[in-house]
Amino acid sequence: MKVLKFGGTSVGSAERMQALVSLINDGTPKIVVLSAMSGTTNALVEIANSLYFKENDKAKILIDTLELKYKDVIQQLYKSKDALNKGAELITSHFDYLRSFTIDLFTINEERAILAQGELLSTALFHYYLEELNIESVLLSALNFMRIDENEEPDMKYIKENTKAELNKYPTVKLFITQGYICRNAFGEIDNLKRGGSDYTATIIGAAVKADEIEIWTDIDGMHNNDPRIVENTHPISELSFDEAAELAYFGAKILHPTCILPAQVNNIPVHLLNTMQPNAKGTLISSKTTADSIKAVAAKDGITAINIKSGRMLLAYGFLRAVFEIFERFKTPIDMITTSEVAVSLTIDNTKNIDAIVKELKQFCTVEIDIDLTIVCIVGSFSAEKQGYAMRIFEALKDIPIRMISYGGSENNVSVLIDSKLKKDALIALNKGLF
Ligand code: ADP
Ligand code: ASP
Ligand code: MG
């Protein structure tokens, strides 16, 4: 069994949906995970925001505009009357549902149900298209088997059992279609795996069914060595280890959801990044194979806050770091980077939801300074400790960029530096020149 995920641009128009068929219709068993059509989730976020701020007239206009787009899509997607009718009915039911919130009370709980409409629409429309072509497939609702637990982590046991139960209902079927991104939470409500989460759906399903391979199809020919939205002349990397890919995804390479590599890595399932616009391009193969010592790629993660913690006496006496970490643990706030000196500890977080409470507790035994609008620039590759010269090359490239923090030696795959977000572009360009 293979799991194939197609992102927003890969299902972004009737034409793109039609082009997908040749990529999935070879008769071998597959689960196909689809994102919402590109632009839809952003539009749904805007609709939910308008409803939240009680701008119902604005919400109505946004809903109508999005509905028109879908009405146009089905005209181009289907030929038969039957498919056109089914498509039109589907659109009406989803958009009437959205419009119901302009009349009924809207609370933040409904937001996630609104955000789920994009994937529900794209998968059903695509499934009707396969029906029109007489290609046998089954549309599975991810809401029946994808679930997160109370810590918002995938509930793997539940997912495994329920995915298998769903598949077992159709023993002769080879092709399954399902929604990326959406799931239920521990309370049974509709929820999601955070923006970009369809990649995560694919690797979670891959792990659940012990797939032979997971393919992530997108609009670029694999993981590039630097952010192609910011830097010119980037190039695709043909092979990455799980560790390298996980670091790049976590530290901002938008092509992959930040935590989507883990389920594949734990189960040793190769992940192949491929381009729907150039299906024959080699892409990037992510596997357990470790590759030669080298600097592979650079990524950047914005929205970072640094917390500088100082204590007057015996700062790093044993027990101090435990006391600090315990506070972050209690407030479920992950720490990304950390450096220590004899009198101070600096660390970074990106989730600032509980920062006020954290600072209040820290202040009971130390002084605290906060620095915002920072970016972690992460240089990824295989840097074995015996090899000299990597740090020198990195810092030579960054010689004109003020560096707030450095993390080196935590793993053999990552050197991270913390800089002012305003300098991100300069830093990425400088690294591209200096390293590749
Ligand atoms: P999808 O909708 O298919 O999930 P995304 O927009 O989420 O696609 O991810 C693909 C985009 O990620 C590319 O178009 C590219 O602009 C961006 N990107 C950022 N960093 C990288 C990188 N290092 N390598 C490749 N693409 C990257
Ligand atoms: N549609 C969702 C988003 O735009 C999930 C995804 O595309 O992966 O974030
Ligand atoms: Mg994506």
Q: How many beta-strand runs?
A: 16
- Residue fraction in strands: 15-25%
What is the makeup of the main sheet?
Answer: 8 strands, mixed
Whole-number mean pLDDT: 95
The count of helical stretches stands at 14
CATH superfamily grouping of the largest domain: Acetylglutamate kinase-like
- By CATH, the topology of the largest domain is Carbamate kinase
- Strand line-up of the largest beta sheet: 3-4-2-1-7-9-10-8
Quaternary structure state of the chains depicted: single chain
Distance between the termini: 37 Å
Q: Stretches where pLDDT falls below 50 for ≥5 residues?
A: none
| Overall tally of domains | 2
Give a structural overview.
- The protein has helices spanning 14-24, 40-52, 56-77, 81-100, 108-115, 117-132, 156-168, 198-208, 242-250, 261-266, 320-330, 355-362, 390-397, 424-435; strands spanning 2-6, 30-34, 138-140, 175-179, 182-184, 190-192, 213-218, 239-241, 271-275, 284-287, 294-310, 338-340, 344-349, 367-382, 405-411, 414-420.
- It is α/β, with parallel strands linked by helices and 436 residues long.
- The protein folds into two domains: 2-219, 3-Layer(aba) Sandwich (Carbamate kinase), CATH 3.40.1160; 296-435, 2-Layer Sandwich (VC0802-like), CATH 3.30.2130.10.
- The strands form three sheets. An eight-stranded mixed sheet has the order 3-4-2-1-7-9-10-8, sandwiched between helices. Strands 12-13-11-14-16-15 form a six-stranded antiparallel sheet, sandwiched between helices.
- A hairpin with an 8-residue loop joins strand 9 (271-275) and strand 10.
- Helix 13 packs across helix 14.
